[in-house]
Amino acid sequence: MSGNGMSPEALKRLRNLANFWNPRMQAATDDADLARICFERAKAAAKRAQRNGQPGAMHELAKQLAQWAAEMERADANRQGRNAV
After folding, report:
1. Which DSSP helix (H) or strand (E) runs through 60?
2. 3, 13, 45, 78: least buried by Cβ within 10 Å?
3. 23-70, pLDDT tens digit by residue?
4. Is the Cα dihedral 79, 74, 76, 81 positive or negative?
5. Left, alpha or beta for 84 (phi > 0: left; psi -120 to 50: alpha)?
């Protein structure tokens, strides 16, 4: 194990994931494209976690996304001069 507590194999897996996702994120053409790529990354991570024994991973991702959306909706509804949808 290395000084950070991760095995060399785990570090290699993380490096490979970074090498896969980072160029895609950097090549995003706009914020919407970046959000799409990040969603794909999160979904892939949740699927991988499920395969590796964390059956609630996709549900946890859904909860976090729903919480973020609710916060954004709340902020939008509270914004001055706007009608809530």
Report:
1. helix 57-78
2. 3
3. 999 999 999 999 999 999 999 999 999 999 999 999 999 999 999 999
4. negative
5. beta
